[in-house]
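Listing S7. Sequence submitted for prediction.
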Amino acid sequence: MTDFLLLFPGQGSQKPGMAKDLIDAFPVARDTWAAADAALGIPLSTIAFEGPAETLTLTHNAQPALLTHGAAVWAVVKDAVGSGARAAAGHSLGEFTAFHAAGALPLADAVKLVRRRGELMLECSAARPGAMAAILGELMRPIEEICIEAGAAGVVVPANYNAVEQTVISGEVASVELAMELAKAAGAKRAIRLNVSGAFHSPLMDAASAGLHAALEAAAWHEPVWSVFSNVTANPVRSSTEARALLLQQLTSPVRWVEVIRAMAAAYPSATFLEMGPGNVLTGMLKRLAPNHPAKSCGTAAEVQSLLGSL
C-alpha cells in the first residue's frame, strides 16, 4: 500500500465552475455539496459552480467553497486511499479541511466554522484595511529584518513562507508598500500586491480572535485519526484541544509552509503527496520543497479517476 500525505489548498485556488465536473461524475461528491448547502442555509454550490467570480471570491464564500471541494474529493477517494493516509496539512484555510479529512470535524461543523471565520476576517478588513504582497527571489537580507524596518510606516509582518524564494507579507498598506520597495532594493526579483480583501495572518486580524474562539469551541470536535501538521508550528497535531488552540493562533501567525512540507517529507520519506481541491498551487510548490516525493493534483473528475485507476 502506498503511503499518502494529503494537502488542501487555501484561498486563491477558488474559481467559478470548481467541482462541477466532480459532482456530475460522483454521487458522493454531489451529496457533499448538498450537505454543505443545507448546513449553511445558502446555495453555496450555485456560487461555486456558476459564480460570478466576485461573489465566490468574497472570503466568507471562498472559504466554505474550498473546504467543500476538498471534502468532496476526500469523500470520493476515501475508501481507496484512506488506509494509506498517514498525515495531512492545509495551507491556511486548507488546514480546516485537513482536520475534516482526519475525522476531527464533521462536514456541517466545518463549513459553518470557516464561513464564520470568513465573516470575521471580512469585518476586520473593513474596520482596519490592509494589504498583502508576494516577495519573489533571493534576498540579500532576511525578510523579517525588512519588515522591521518597514514597520516605521505601520504594521507589516511575514504572513506566508510559501517557498525558499517566495514569502508573502501582510499589514497596513503604507508599510507593505515600503517593505516591497525595501525588498526590491535587497534583490527581490519581483514584489507583487495580491488581490485580497485584507491583511490576513497579521496583527490586523486580532479583532477576529474572540469570535473565532467562540466558533471553534462551538464545533463538535473529535480526535484526529492521523496527524495534521500545523501551519503555526510545523509539528504534527493529534489532539483536538491542540488543534483548536493552533487554528486560533493561525489567524494572526505566519503560515510556515516550507517547514510543514519539509517536516512531512522527512517523517514519511516514501509517501506520495495528494493535493485535494481546485488547482495545483501546492503541487507546484512541492517540486522545490520535496523534489524526491511524487505529487498529484486531485481536484477534477479526470484527476480523481486517474488516481483511482492507478491504485
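Caption to Listing S7: primary sequence and predicted C-alpha cells for the chain studied. The longest strand covers residues 156-163. The chain is about 50% helix and 15% strand.
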